[in-house]
Each structure stands twice: as C-alpha cells, then as structure tokens.
Amino acid sequence: MREAVQIQLQAGVSMEYTWEGQGTPILVLHGGHSSCQESFGYKELIEQGYAILTPSRAGYGGTSREAGTSLAAACRSYIALLDHLNLDKVHVIAISAGGPSGIYMAAHYPERVSSLTLQSAVTKEWLTPEHKEYKAAKVIFRPGMEKVTWTMMGVLCNLFPTFLLKQMAPSFSKLSYEQVRAYNNADDVQAFKQMMQRQRSGHGFMIDLELPGQLSASDLRAIVCPTFIMHSRHDSSVPIAHAQYAHEQIAQSQLCELDTWGHLIWLGKGSEQVHRELGAFLANV
After folding, report:
1. 39 catalytic per annotation
2. Which residue in 35, 56, 77, 96 is the catalytic one?
3. Fewer Cβ atoms within 10 A, N terminus or C terminus of the chain?
C-alpha cells in the first residue's frame, strides 16, 4: 500500500492523495468503491516513465464529501491539488464513475489538461432511481452499511476468491461465466482478490450516483484536448454506449473498443492491448 498524504484545501475540506513514479505527471480519477490506493494499470505506466497522482475522490478514503457537492466543486479541488504540487498541466485518466469529473475538468480547465483518457467511463446519465442496481446500491453501499458489506465481501473473497468472482462476473460482464473464464489469465483471480481488499464506498458512491446527471453534451463538446476512449464491448457495469456517446460529442477523440471480458479492462486476455495503446497515445500527445 502506498503512503497517502493528507492536505487541507479549505476550512473543513481535506483531500488525501498518493504520488508514485518519476516523470510526466498523470492525474488518475479512480472509479467507484476505490481510493488513492487504486493500482490497475499503474505498473505499466510507471515503467513507461510517468508519475501518477491519485487523489481519493470526494467521500472516498480521507477526502471530505464536501469536495463533491457538484462536479464544479470536485474539479476545483483537483485544481487546488495541482496548485499545491506546482503542477501546471497533467494528463488525466478518468476511470468508470470518475468519468464525469474527468470530462468536466477537461472541458472547464483546458489550460491544465494535456490529454484525457476515459477508461470504462461513465459519460452521461447512468444509474437512476428506476434502476434496480440504483435501489440496491442505496441499501448496501450507503454510509454505515458499506463497511459491513465490504468486510463480508473481503472475508468471502479471502476464503473463496474464484467463487466470488463467478458470482460477481455478471455485474462486470455481459458474457457468461464460461466465456469469462476463457479470457482469464493465471493471475487474474489474485488481482481480483487484491481489488476486493481495497474496496470501500464511504460517502463516495452515493455522490457517484448523483453527479453524472450534472453532465451535459455541451461539456463533452467543449473538450479540445486529445481524448482517448477505451471501453470493453462486453462491459455490463457501464455499457459501451457511454463510450460511443463520448466519441460522438468530443471532436478530438479516438475510440478504442476492446475485446476484454468486461469492465475490468486491465485483467485477462486483451489487457495487453490496453497498456500498449494507452502508452502509444500518451507518447504521441
């Protein structure tokens, strides 16, 4: 686990972050149920000569939920972090539920964003009160309950990681579990187990359920930096329609439709394409 640093952004509002590697800075806006301890894809980027700055988004880890009262507030907190670290400009990688913040930041702070990469990202209205997933999340991931949920999941994953992956596969992939198994590499179960050990929701996921509704098509159309959109065709967590929509709206965008097994594009067969093509994109910006 990387050492996290805590800073005060303003009275009563704090942010934690990790900083790893040497070289050109990348700001990673992690996905839901994660924090500044996210690690998918980090090793490959650090080996390519990048430094990775990862704040815990609003309500996650040690970052105040007040930092996420709106997309505007969330992005002001990221700009404050860049100012604190004397970083004029960064590449931004926005993952899953971190997508709306990455989009808003690129649209409204173009002078601070060298490029935007969207990975399995939410780019428009996502889960709404009509969705059963929304209703379930409001129960099992609400503050007060989420710790119990993740503690139970962590224990189960320690004991029966393959079983839990099989049970959770439909939440990540549209493929059958037998098809998912055909994509799995030898170390995928261990990587899944490690992911489950670092998962927490705090107040963050409740915020994530609301913020996508604040995005508009004009936000995406305002993005002028080079943008790389990576999404699995088999993603069931965030349908590939989100990637296609972003590609239609963002003028300087490339869409990379991946043949990975689902939402976790860094695992399994096809993940090597993720690392290779992201590296090539960043090297040519």
Report:
1. no
2. 96
3. N
